[in-house]
């Protein structure tokens, strides 16, 4: 009944002897509660988030639906273990392309332990977190039946420079997404995925408006997950663009202050996506007039 | 001809044997070039900024006018020394109230030395820089002829908590600004200084729009300076609200990425100011309906 998810690109992944998330046939995602404070902090977040009625529905839909916790057999065979149960936002898709982007130029929260802060700070400085306000944690890009997916190793992705990030965001919406950053992207899906009233950019702008005002939560080390499918995008069909926030093990109370760390990174990501849309090949004549 | 400015609230201040800025009678401000890289970096910034014609005038007016560099006698009597010459945005006022707010949740830039980074990080964590995305570096609030100015010591201001910052921003636009944070602010100047089409909030929102798009500069350790005068505010006269960016010794090239660090802090400051305007005593009936 439970199986290891096909389409996970970041975070702890289940494999032989290693505990990780599971999914079932009904579209639910089971995340084992991490034994330290992180598991309970994520339960606390979901519980509080569910109880706050002031969060409008158009924002609520950026968060996976939460179904509580449940004791199930852990993926590593170590026996029953409590799991967070939530909406599986990916596995219902056939051939999803997806990207996990960890937000903020700082992944550590002020009250964390000194060891944790120094570990995070080191990683933030070694990745694009510091210069860009976000880093790509992982992705998979579906090519076609023959080429399948490009799903690079985590280590490769974490080594991305600013330019690599720019290219990866272009390849993410291209049809010729061969297994490297070299081939020139063709932007075949840029308008249908990033553009339009339900595209990634429009959704990120809605999130931005909320983050300019919300002072309830600070989302440290949280990710934006972008998902779409190439096949249904042909001939006027929607590619089913989904933008979700995931990973709330390091969410703390906002105490009346906006989450300027997440918001800054979000504005930076928005600028990267806008730049791609503003500079699409067929727009070049128009752009040169600006 | 040259004298020590009356209304400086932050930064290096001239006193016996200590070098600091000077002003003249014609409204110019002379800042001694710091002997390390900082002085030359600020000259470089002003030179580059002056040469970029794409910066619109409504943004250019947030920066002091730059008149180049000039060799004059240093304030400490150590002889001639090169000074940055710029518009004096304060001393033309009679009794200005002013506040210097250092922007960003990180005051260090990625390529700085390890010593410098650790020194800044420590200060960022000890002040409101980390939680708020900005810290008040200094202020003076004019009361009236009898009470004069409240101009607290730098050390006191740097010790501010989040709540202290909130109160200081309220006292800044109150008539009863006695020399502490205790007395209840009366918000007498809140609408005329923070509100309206030329008030602080409107000006900060213009800056925000620019920062969402500009990728030329990253303004580390730069300040927003707010200035106004109480007396002309009576009976429909404008309090002459000025908002300027100052201190560009740590500006680096943006390299195509927005300054998410400054922008995040700016959005946080905007939220603080908006909250004050939204919760003015006479607005309370209206607010309770929201």
UniProtKB/TrEMBL annotation, chains A, B:
Its EC number is 2.7.1.140, 2.7.1.151. It catalyses: 1D-myo-inositol 1,4,5-trisphosphate + 2 ATP = 1D-myo-inositol 1,3,4,5,6-pentakisphosphate + 2 ADP + 2 H(+); 1D-myo-inositol 1,3,4,6-tetrakisphosphate + ATP = 1D-myo-inositol 1,3,4,5,6-pentakisphosphate + ADP + H(+). It holds the Pfam family IPK. GO terms for biological process: inositol phosphate biosynthetic process. It comes from the Eukaryota. Keywords: ATP-binding, Kinase, Nucleotide-binding, Transferase. GO terms for cellular component: cytoplasm; nucleus. GO terms for molecular function: ATP binding; inositol tetrakisphosphate kinase activity; inositol-1,4,5-trisphosphate 3-kinase activity. It is an enzyme of class 2 (transferase). Inositol phosphate kinase with a broad substrate specificity. Belongs to the inositol phosphokinase (IPK) family. This is Inositol polyphosphate multikinase. It comes from Cannabis sativa (Hemp).
